[in-house]
Amino acid sequence: MKPVDYPEPFRELARELRRLPGIGPRTAERIALWLASSKDARPLDLASALRHAADHLRSCKTCGFFSTEELCEICLDQGRAGREICVVEQATDILPIERARSFQGRYHVLGGRLAPLDHIGPDQLRIDELLSRAQIERPSEIILALSADVEGEATTNYLAEALSPLGIPVTRIAHGLPAGGGLEHADPLTLQRALEGRNPLKV
Questions:
Q1: Which pLDDT score is estimated for 100?
Q2: Which of 200, 151, 145 is CA-nearest to residue 173?
């Protein structure tokens, strides 16, 4: 006797959900079950929102942030006072910086970081676009706000070397102890960065 399985539309939904990052087979099945049977699921609204996002969301031509037009609202904002370019790995890295309200410059999204084991080299990132922007816009500073792990360090060093002939100051964000964090919870690399990035006290 053939074993009973979910109908094909259900299996297709679960297969598509499994393609999402962090969603395994069991989680996909649970989400599909909720979408198919819960009165609060509103799957047609979800499908409409997905369609709307697919039709209208794009990457900003200049910086790579999310946009509905050719340029995002950050690049269109003439009121931004800073002339710096802050380089980040992903578009999602921009909002935490914006919410801190301490940076008034513009951004450049690389689209990842150098990872030779995953076959991600300079050609797979938006490095050429950064070099072109730097030559055309001549920012006052280029700030590298990349991860502090091995791949982030390799990307930071590669960019610093590639940008050096342009004569534009290149800096990196400080890495140290988080606010409210104690030494007993810090890993060795964080402590090293905190010591290297120490500043004089203002009395």
A1: 87
A2: 145
